[in-house]
């Protein structure tokens, strides 16, 4: 008999616009245990799984704080209502909460005003699709700039309880069916209400359950919080003053580039980010913020790091394709990695089809370079130790693109304007500074060969896990490493000797190290 062994939810708090996919472990009639679904279209031994989602609606509606979603709201910003900002963004749990959030909160007012006058439909596309609309959970409002909600003794100032207090008519709660599939995406109508997921095995012929249903409750649905605006750092123009940028851009034209380590879902754990609530770490929540932000920059070339293979194939490639981007991908190697093959991460490069066309793709696997290096300079007795230090499964993705814009056609009609884009993720371990520098040097030497053979400009992007002043940053920005740099003191394998070899001839304009908000 088909039966349910266990059901649990990926996050304890459902978010508007973020798909919920419960973990359902099934025992099949042959005794095998699996998470694979048994749909009505493909029953097993005459049985299939039926799923239902219910909204548990209470007569007593509870407004939720937009800053602290586990707290009930006590005040409301009437300026948000006048600016036609989604009402769920207007709630705050206390006057202090509103005051502390004001610098960010007023940005919502400014953005709403400018969006109405400037962005129009585009703003709706970027913020409306993944934000929360609708009226949310309403309570009686007073007058003035802040509206106070009256609190009865039954309303607690503490966190909203995980489970509703009851499910019968005496408690004022009613169940409404809202979904009939394994997954469900909460809408604005669900805000403030708990959800119930129910699954049961059904006989294909009799269309009746073959056992008791298994169910699980969520906490109350909350609106998707508005991401904090980025504080972008402008590169000082004086740094680039010694370069003739006008002559360099006149032939190719101008274009924009975004490089972003998006933090793979496999690494977004509560152990690593204990300060972050689990619902904010869930991929269903994070991917919407990531996509919204990436699309919002309108970059011509996008280089992403820590992109899981399944997320590239199922999400980023098809979603960015809708916005005119072609995709390239290289996953990390698996000599060290031992997890789910589909969850391994890598580098993804996207480019606008109307600006560039794809010419050639190169893949760099530092593991192979490590094998060649140890064969050449490491004694056989030390090779195993050397490889364990060097092999980290890191890679680089190199794409040669042809520009479809610029003035090169007028100057030389027969010449193609090519651009080489490198995208990499360098070793993260700070105690392996020799490996970090070796990986950067190996990549640059490979790019040198491409540049010499094709006389092609280079664009080097990635997460180098290095700060200004470090040896990898110096190699990228200056073209060489100071032979007295303290990083060179860590070289147990002798792979950085002589230090004079640590240079390159690529005319890189500038190396910029960007710190990203990982909690997104």
TrEMBL record:
EC class: hydrolase
Coiled-coil annotated residue ranges, if any: none
Subcellular location: Cytoplasm; Nucleus
Transmembrane segments: none
Keywords assigned by UniProt, alphabetized: Cytoplasm, Hydrolase, Magnesium, Metal-binding, Nuclease, Nucleus, Repeat, RNA-binding, Transcription, Transcription regulation
GO CC terms: cytoplasm; nucleus
Record domain Endonuclease/exonuclease/phosphatase: where: 258-477
InterPro entries xref list: CCR4/nocturin_mRNA_transcr, Endo/exonu/phosph_ase_sf, Endo/exonuclease/phosphatase
SUPFAM superfamilies: DNase I-like
Catalyzed reaction equations: Exonucleolytic cleavage of poly(A) to 5'-AMP
Main location: cytoplasm
Keyword Transferase listed: no
Domain of life, per lineage: Eukaryota
One Gene Ontology term of the molecular function aspect: RNA binding
EC number(s) from the headed UniProt entry: 3.1.13.4
Cofactors demanded by this protein: Mg(2+)
Functional note: Acts as a catalytic component of the CCR4-NOT core complex, which in the nucleus seems to be a general transcription factor, and in the cytoplasm the major mRNA deadenylase involved in mRNA turnover.
Family to which the UniProt record says this protein belongs: Belongs to the CCR4/nocturin family.
Quaternary structure note: Component of the CCR4-NOT complex, at least composed of CRR4 and CAF1 proteins.
Protein name stated in the entry: poly(A)-specific ribonuclease
Originating species: Panicum virgatum
């Amino acid at each position: 008999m088909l039966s349910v062994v266990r059901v649990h939810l990926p996050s304890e708090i459902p978010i508007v616009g973020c798909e919920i996919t419960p973990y359902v472990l099934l025992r099949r009639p042959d005794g095998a245990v699996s998470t694979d679904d048994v749909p009505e279209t493909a029953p097993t031994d005459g049985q299939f799984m039926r799923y239902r989602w219910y909204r548990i609606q209470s007569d007593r509606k509870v407004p939720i704080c937009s800053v602290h979603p586990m707290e009930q709201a006590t005040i409301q910003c009437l300026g948000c209502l006048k600016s036609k900002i989604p009402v769920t963004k207007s709630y705050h749990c206390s006057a202090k909460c509103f005051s502390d959030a004001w610098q960010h909160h007023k940005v919502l007012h400014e953005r709403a005003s400018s969006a109405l006058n400037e962005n129009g439909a585009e703003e709706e596309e970027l913020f409306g699709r993944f934000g929360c609309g609708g009226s949310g959970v309403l309570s009686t409002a007073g007058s003035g700039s802040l509206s106070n909600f009256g609190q009865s003794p039954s309303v607690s100032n503490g966190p909203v309880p995980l489970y509703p207090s009851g499910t019968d008519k005496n408690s004022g709660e009613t169940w409404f069916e809202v979904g009939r599939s394994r997954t469900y995406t909460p809408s604005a109508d669900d805000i403030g209400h708990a959800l119930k997921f129910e699954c049961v095995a059904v006989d294909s012929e009799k269309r009746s359950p073959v056992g008791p249903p298994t169910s699980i409750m969520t906490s109350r649905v909350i609106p998707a919080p508005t991401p904090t605006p980025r504080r972008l750092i402008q590169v000082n123009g004086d740094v680039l003053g010694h370069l003739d940028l006008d002559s360099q851009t006149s032939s190719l034209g101008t274009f924009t580039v975004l490089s972003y380590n998006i933090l793979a879902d496999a690494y977004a754990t509560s152990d690593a980010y204990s300060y972050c609530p689990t619902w904010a770490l869930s991929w269903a929540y994070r991917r919407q913020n990531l996509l919204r932000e990436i699309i919002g920059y309108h970059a011509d070339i996008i280089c992403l790091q820590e992109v899981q293979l399944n997320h590239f194939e199922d999400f980023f490639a098809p979603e960015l394709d809708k916005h005119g981007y072609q995709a390239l991908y290289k996953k990390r190697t698996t000599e060290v990695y031992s997890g789910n093959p589909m969850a391994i991460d890598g580098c993804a490069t996207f480019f606008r089809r109307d600006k560039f066309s794809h010419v050639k793709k190169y893949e760099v696997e530092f593991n192979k370079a490590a094998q060649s290096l140890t064969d050449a300079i490491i004694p056989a007795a030390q090779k195993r130790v050397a490889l364990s230090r060097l092999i980290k499964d890191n890679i680089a993705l190199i794409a040669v693109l042809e520009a479809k814009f610029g003035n090169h056609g007028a100057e030389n009609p027969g010449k193609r304007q090519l651009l080489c884009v490198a995208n990499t993720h360098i070793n993260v371990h700070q105690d392996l500074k020799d490996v970090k520098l070796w990986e950067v040097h190996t990549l640059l030497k490979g790019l040198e060969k491409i540049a010499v053979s094709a006389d092609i400009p280079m664009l080097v992007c990635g997460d180098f896990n290095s700060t200004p002043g470090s040896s990898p940053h110096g190699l990228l920005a200056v073209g060489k490493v100071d032979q007295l740099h303290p990083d060179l003191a860590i070289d147990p394998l002798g792979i950085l000797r002589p230090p004079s070899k640590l240079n390159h001839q690529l005319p890189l304009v500038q190396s910029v190290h960007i710190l990203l908000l990982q909690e997104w």
